[in-house]
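User: Mind token order:
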Amino acid sequence: MLAAPFGRIGVRADAQCIHAIHFLPERFALRGADLPPIRQLAAQLEAYYADPDAPLDVPLAGTGTEFQRRVWQAIRAVRCGRTATYGELAANVGGTARAVGQACGDNPFPLVVPCHRVVGAKGLGGFAHHGEDGFHLEVKRWLLRHERVMLL
């Protein structure tokens, strides 16, 4: 569990790679894990909090369907300070906006695969299969503001 400006970040990893990242409220206790990928992620996150252009490139577990991996790769191409709509990504990867939204919600590596940069055509959209619940949507807003994205 890592501290974050918006709460906590839960990390599931082994000695080789990250398996999942979860955003959690501050009420969760901090616990350390002395695994190389978690130490690497913690250092990269500190750099990101200081400069949103800092790269996040920790080793990730191979997971997901072929379509999900295409969507996640397309999301990684959305640069800091920019957003893409679900429809734009769908046009790039050959799917529907709804399928892209599902793949975004299934993304086990938020921040590293920056699904917070994917928005709806008419608004912010949901985040991590949490729809428009308070905590997760506030994390999305915090991340976009941090990356200097103008929010309406």
Observations:
- DSSP finds five helices and five strands in the chain.
- The two ends are 32 Å apart (CA to CA).
- The longest helix spans residues 36-50.
- Helices lie at 36-50, 66-76, 86-93, 97-106, 134-146.
